[in-house]
Amino acid sequence: AQLGGGAVTELLRLPLDHPRPPYPVFRSGNISVELRGEVVQALRDLRAAEGVSLFTVLLAAFAVYMLRLSGQDDVVVGVPFVDRREPETRDLIGCFVNLLPVRVNLAGAATCRGLLPRVQAALRGAVAHHELPFHILAEQLAPHRQAAHPPVFQTSALLLHEHTAGVDLPGLKQEFHVLPAGGSTCDLNLHVELA
Questions:
Q1: Residue 4: its pLDDT value, please?
Q2: How many CB atoms lie within 10 A of CB 150?
Q3: How confident is the model at residue 1 (pLDDT cuts 50, 70, 90)?
Q4: Cα–chain-centroid distance for residue 116?
Q5: Residue 71: C-alpha distances to residues 14, 66, 90 (Å)
Q6: pLDDT tens across 38-58, in order?
Q7: What string of DSSP letters covers 29-51?
């Protein structure tokens, strides 16, 4: 499989506590961690100093974590991309999300700070091709895929900003609730919510 120039190892070798079943079972769980205010501020300071987005900083840290878990220095992380820029989709109800594989090559990166431009370039490259539906990309990159794991990437990352307020509808009140884990197609998902 190739993505962003060069071959990608299709399966991220994460340490498992039991053998991978031959078919996905989609069982999952959540682990919530609250970062201290000074850690969040340090991340924001790094973002500002390097001129990158906060998501770029978080994705770089997540990629380094994948390196530590798997020993692989070339990882692909799935990133959901919401696209409602076209005028005809702005008022429609529905899910306009495409999964973008973001390939992060960590080889030779001595520091996380040095990795940030590489991650930012990888994100920009993925976004530049956001109109290509993921299922078509998966067919091209992994035509002989195994049912035991998802194609192209086995991890995903998502950042929800504090201004994620939903929509205002007359006569309706909305509330956000944390839903129990109901299943996941990925082995590991990082969801960061800023309060």
A1: 55
A2: 21
A3: very low
A4: 16
A5: 9, 8, 43
A6: 998 999 999 999 999 999 999
A7: -----PPPHHHHHHHHHHHHHHT
